[in-house]
Write a structure and sequence with these properties.
Layout (H helix, E strand, L loop, with lengths): L6 E10 L2 E11 L4 E5 L6 H9 L6 E5 L4 E4 L11 H27 L5 H14 L5 H11 L16 H15 L3 E5 L7 H12 L5 E4 L3 H7 L2 E4 L17 E4 L2 H40 L9 H33 L27 E8 L3 E8 L4 E5 L6 H9 L8 E4 L5 E4 L12 H9 L1 H6 L22 H13 L5 E5 L7 H12 L4 E5 L3 H6 L3 E4 L6 E2 L3
Parallel strand pairs: 3-7, 3-8, 5-6, 6-7, 11-18, 12-16, 12-17, 14-15, 15-16
Antiparallel strand pairs: 1-2, 1-4, 8-9, 10-11, 10-13
Helix pairs in contact: 2-3, 2-5, 4-5, 8-9
Length: about 550
């Protein structure tokens, strides 16, 4: 049988306890195709990738994949014993083995050994697909472009940041050149140059690529098609209780157009059927009224009533009966209203803004040695500041400095008295991961305030996830919980480090829109090109080694 060159799933299902994650998922990713997986947080994107990689088993259905398949995790685990050098060596071991097999096959061919022709042809094909001869040259390019070339090979992986671990893992995957790629949020932790490099690598990839991503610009540039993994919602099944997936051709902009048109048709059909019901009910009410005589009878009405009355009453009764049957049928068969998406509900009541006057935070000649130097920065109540720049320039350090989680050296850093600052970090951590979102929320706010502003009223955590352990939620769902814990007590200065990372496409857009009307100061550090294109406020680009100075 020939080498399988595509990814195929037929009827794949998976449950965790009483929770359905995947139901009857079927899809094909042909060779050369780049399919983007989208869907709400917790819809099963990471689970599906794990099943395809052979790490998890489906409860039902079949999976067929090429022999060499590589996967990039959304969060690369720490390793207390693995070094950077060992990680990279492991990524290239299989290619080195292919190179050795090709040399051995060539020797066997020269010696005239039995079956040497077939062995050499197989080894040559594998070596060509893995690009064996360009490995050393690609090693320098990949490590340099992804910003991990300067990491010492003896450095433990556990000692590098989460972003560096992700970029190391991505570098290893690209160097290994597997037949098929599975990527879980591949652009997290990548700056513009690294995203452009990855885009070019994937567009030129020979085998099938399946990637889950929140990056709307990346989906537009890379995807040849999208698969929406949310339970498929239809006019007759608005809650998505059915099975399967919805597939779309093109990138994210095409998907938005199709979904908008679908919802408009659904809403129009719902409105038309509602109007038809109102008309039929009015017909029944009006016909019933006509049967009740409330006029003055004339002398010859006795004959008319006897002769015509029965006929008229029968006609009116038929009209009522027909209308009532149509109402019954329509009420049974009509579509439900289009479901309202889980949307960001905004800021709870009770936000107390500080009086106007001096800046909320003032920084002058403040430094964090080896990471960042701030020459001048003022954060005012109306500040809307977007901070961009390559990895390592100091964006996260700036937010930590403003939040007070990193101590400055020298200069002057002043925070206004009574100031409340909230920081949404890239890597969220919870004091008790075994607690539920509802319990964590109550412990932060107190029972009384949590009851007054329920967690589910913020539009960030679905009702089915309120009482599940946080540790069992997806990374995106955990980030929603962390965001809710901040917004329940809205800060005067809201700092967000890569806020759209791990969030679903719809929620990321809702959050961006809501931040524009936030009643306090907002400072965002982000690589998200979609967000940056729509940004209407101030922007500062941090260059590595250059002092940060806000325009006056």
């Amino acid at each position: 049988m020939g080498r399988l060159d595509h990814i195929r799933l037929d009827g794949v299902s998976r449950r965790y306890g009483d929770r359905r994650v995947l139901t009857d998922v079927s899809l094909v990713v042909p060779t050369g195709a780049r399919t983007g997986l989208i869907g709400e947080n917790g819809a099963g994107k990471s689970t599906l990738l794990r099943i395809i990689a052979g790490i998890d088993e489906p409860d039902g259905g079949t999976v067929a994949v090429p022999r060499r398949i590589g996967i990039l995790w959304q969060e690369v685990p720490r390793s207390a014993s693995t070094t950077v050098g060992c990680l990279l060596d492991a990524a290239t071991d299989e290619i080195r083995a292919l190179e050795r097999e090709l040399a051995a096959a060539a020797e066997a061919l020269a010696d005239g050994a039995d079956g040497a022709d077939a062995r050499y042809a197989t080894a040559l094909d594998a070596a060509e697909r893995a690009e064996v001869w360009s490995l050393d040259a690609r090693l320098d390019v990949v490590l340099g472009t992804l910003g991990v070339a300067d990491l010492g090979r003896s450095l433990l992986v556990s000692e590098v940041s989460g972003g560096q671990r992700s970029r190391l893992a991505l570098a290893g995957l690209l160097l290994a050149r597997p037949d098929a790629l599975l990527l879980d949020e591949p652009t997290n932790h990548l700056d513009d140059a690294a995203v452009a490099f990855l885009r070019d690598e994937l567009v030129a990839w020979r085998g099938p690529v399946l990637f889950a991503s929140h990056d709307r610009a990346f989906l537009d540039e890379v995807a040849t098609g999208l698969v929406d993994l949310d339970p498929v919602r239809t006019p007759t099944d608005p809650r998505g209780t059915g099975a399967g997936v919805a597939s779309f051709g093109g990138g994210f902009s095409d998907y938005l157009s199709v979904k908008a048109a679908e919802r408009e048709r659904w809403q129009r059909r719902f409105a038309e059927e509602e109007q038809r019901l109102r008309d039929l009910r009015a017909t029944v009410a009006g016909a019933g009224e006509a049967l009740r005589f409330d006029g003055v009878r004339r002398d010859n009405d006795t004959f008319n009533v006897g002769f015509k009355g029965g006929t008229v009453e029968r006609q009116v009764s038929r009209r009522i009966g027909n209308a009532e049957r149509r109402i019954e049928h329509l009420e049974t068969e009509r579509v439900e209203a289009p479901p309202s998406p889980l949307t960001f509900a905004g800021i709870p009541a009770g936000f107390g803004a500080l009086p106007d006057g001096e800046p909320l935070v003032t920084a002058r000649d403040v430094g964090v040695p080896g990471r960042l130097h701030v020459d001048r920065l003022d954060v005012r109540p109306e500040t809307r500041l977007l901070v961009t720049g390559p990895n390592g320039a100091g964006k996260s350090t700036l937010l930590a400095l403003l939040a007070g989680t990193v101590a400055p050296r020298g200069g002057r850093l002043v925070r206004r008295k009574g100031l409340r600052i909230g920081l949404l970090e890239q890597d969220v951590r919870f004091a008790d991961p075994a607690a539920s979102p509802r319990a964590a929320y109550a412990s932060v706010l107190g029972e009384e305030r949590a009851a007054r502003i329920p967690l589910d009223s913020l539009g960030l955590v679905g009702s089915l996830d309120l009482d599940r352990p946080i540790a069992r939620l997806s990374i995106g769902q955990q980030r929603r919980v962390a965001l809710a814990l901040i917004l329940a007590r809205p800060p005067h200065v809201f700092l967000l480090d890569e806020p759209t990372n791990h969030l679903s496409l719809s929620l990321a857009t809702d959050l961006e829109d809501a931040l524009g009307a936030y009643p306090g100061a907002v400072v965002i550090a982000s690589h998200d090109r979609w967000l940056r294109r729509r940004w209407m406020g101030e922007e500062i680009v941090i260059a590595p080694g250059e002092p940060l100075r806000q325009a006056v």
